[in-house]
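Batch manifest line 274
LIGAND: NAP
JOB: complex structure
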Amino acid sequence: MKKWFAVIGDPISHSKSPAMHNAWYKEMNVDATYIPIHVEPANLHQAVTSLKLLGASGWNVTIPHKEAILPLLDELDEQAQKMGAVNTVVKTAAGKYKGYNTDGAGFVRSLEDMIGPAHKDKLVLLIGAGGAARGIAFALLAEGYQHITIANRTLAKAEAIVEQLGCGQAISLQEAENNLQKFAIFIQTTPAGMTSGTLDLPFSLDKLPQGAIAADIVYNPLMTPFLQAAESKGATIVNGLGMFVHQGAIAYNYWLGHYPNTSSTIAELTAQLK
Ligand code: NAP
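JOB STATUS: finished
ARTIFACT:
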């Protein structure tokens, strides 16, 4: 039987996931389709009940449902439970719907695509302590990065993640700015620099150390003010597009058992966003 997948969110019309997944099905000769479904928060329960009833093979979950969907699923992957957020739902062999989170792992793959796996002992500064930062912090730890410091405007949110991680440190944005020299890998996870937003950088990168690696998870625009500032200081930069493509590719792999071609997708989307 033809498999079908979806992405649910509010808004959803801007999502690049349907085009990306449908292109992979075509390329890999997979008999499947992937559709966007607009689900407002008040309708989430009914939408999930309907997706299960109609036998969806799986679906992605985007803003604002990543946390609210947890109690509506039959099973949860351990990492997704710790992260408190789900972005991928998989129909198991037993017909149950299990939630996973591929955002953080997608980020780590994207980072290591660019810099390789040999930097796990370096000191990481994670800027922001929202849903994406939480997922990235858990994924970094799972992949062997052991020195994680989280800087956030609301310190209590950074402290809560550190407590849950069982390691690392929480600091203010001012402390981060004053101590940039201590870190080697900088990961910007606030919405600062998004095309639709007006946020300034969380802090100045004037004192960025030599040889820094700077990643931003915002990918529209590809070249954010954070990446521009970091590049002007000689840093190796990693934009947010790889994270988006790899989170989708890891979901695809959960659903279909093989990894799609991410490099051509990244090249195509880069050309579209430039
Ligand atoms: P979120 O849960 O709302 O968290 C936002 C974070 O940004 C919080 O730490 C917040 O600090 C901080 N922040 C917001 N406004 C700020 C300001 N004016 N100054 C300093 N800090 C500020 O959002 P999220 O889900 O983590 O998403 C964050 C960004 O990542 C979004 O732009 C999203 O599009 C992007 N993203 C990209 C991918 C990808 O695949 N590349 C995946 C997921 C998300 P407080 O705690 O103090 O409020």
